[in-house]
């Protein structure tokens, strides 16, 4: 397991950026190869500084469990449902999120690396400062989510739905947003010269923001 002093590093990338060997997990806080299929987690469950290796979380019903400074490596979150759960300063490596839903969850400062997302759905909650650079989020759905200063640089969001979402200060350089539904989202951090927007859906207010970013005058 993780050393208790260890927290998720602040660099948000899909590759491990830190030099040298990774810290040796605390053996007393390692959950490896366990089958958690269909398990129910509640707000009475809490883990700090744990490492979850190659565990199966398929169809887990997570209703408010708390995970702080944990590492998830090779974990299968397929068809799991997370409501009011907390994942702060966590690292997700090589995890699979197929038909996974997060509702009213708090993901502050968590980092996703080399993970796959298919039919991901996020409803409300706070995903500020999360790291999703280069993530393949094609077709994903983010609705009314707080994603302030999230790292979405190079992320693939073609045909994704990102509606009513607060992207203030988000890193969007080189993001692909072709055909995405962006209506109602805060887009002041979006530079239309550094992202791909062909076919994206925006509302009239967003059109003014983007036109202004291009140096145009809206009369």
Helix and strand topology:
Elements: E1 30-32, E2 40-42, E3 46-48, E4 51-53, E5 61-63, E6 66-68, E7 71-73, E8 81-83, E9 86-88, E10 91-93, E11 96-98, E12 101-103, E13 111-113, E14 116-118, E15 121-123, E16 141-143, E17 161-163, H1 204-213
Parallel strand pairs: 1-4, 2-5, 3-6, 4-7, 5-8, 6-9, 7-10, 8-12, 10-13, 11-14, 12-15, 15-16, 16-17
Structural summary, described in words:
The protein has one helix at 204-213, and strands spanning 30-32, 40-42, 46-48, 51-53, 61-63, 66-68, 71-73, 81-83, 86-88, 91-93, 96-98, 101-103, 111-113, 116-118, 121-123, 141-143, 161-163. The protein is mainly beta. The strands form 4 sheets. The protein has a 7-stranded parallel β-sheet, with no helix packed on it. A 5-stranded parallel β-sheet has the order 1-4-7-10-13, with no helix packed on it. The protein has a 3-stranded parallel β-sheet with strand order 3-6-9, with no helix packed on it. The radius of gyration is 18 Å and the shape is elongated.
Strand numbers in spatial order across the main sheet: 2-5-8-12-15-16-17
Radius of gyration: 18 Å
SSE class: mainly beta
Distance between the termini: 60 Å
Please count the beta strands (DSSP E, at least 2 residues each).
17
Proportion of beta-strand residues: 15-25%
- Shape by Cα distribution: elongated
Poorly predicted parts: 1-22
Helix and strand string, N-terminal first? EEEEEEEEEEEEEEEEEH
Helix content: under 10%
Question: What's this, in brief?
Answer:
With 219 residues, the chain is mainly beta. It is built from one helix and 17 strands.
């Amino acid at each position: 397991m993780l050393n208790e002093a260890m927290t998720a590093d602040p660099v948000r990338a899909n590759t491990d950026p830190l030099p040298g060997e990774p810290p040796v997990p605390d053996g007393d806080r390692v959950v490896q190869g366990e089958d958690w299929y269909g398990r129910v987690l509640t707000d009475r469950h809490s883990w700090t500084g744990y490492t979850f290796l190659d565990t199966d979380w398929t169809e887990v019903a997570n209703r408010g469990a708390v995970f702080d400074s944990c590492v998830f490596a090779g974990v299968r979150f397929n068809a799991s449902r997370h409501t009011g759960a907390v994942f702060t300063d966590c690292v997700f490596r090589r995890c699979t999120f197929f038909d996974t839903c997060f509702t009213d969850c708090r993901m502050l400062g968590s980092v996703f690396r080399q993970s796959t997302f298919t039919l991901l759905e996020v409803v409300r909650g706070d995903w500020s400062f999360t790291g999703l650079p280069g993530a393949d989020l094609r077709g994903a759905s983010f609705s009314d989510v707080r994603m302030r200063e999230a790292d979405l640089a190079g992320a693939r969001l073609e045909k994704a739905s990102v509606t009513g979402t607060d992207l203030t200060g988000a890193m969007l350089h080189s993001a692909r947003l072709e055909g995405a539904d962006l209506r109602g989202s805060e887009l002041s951090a979006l530079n239309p010269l550094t992202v791909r927007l062909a076919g994206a859906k925006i509302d009239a207010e967003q059109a003014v923001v983007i036109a202004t970013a291009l140096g145009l005058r809206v009369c």
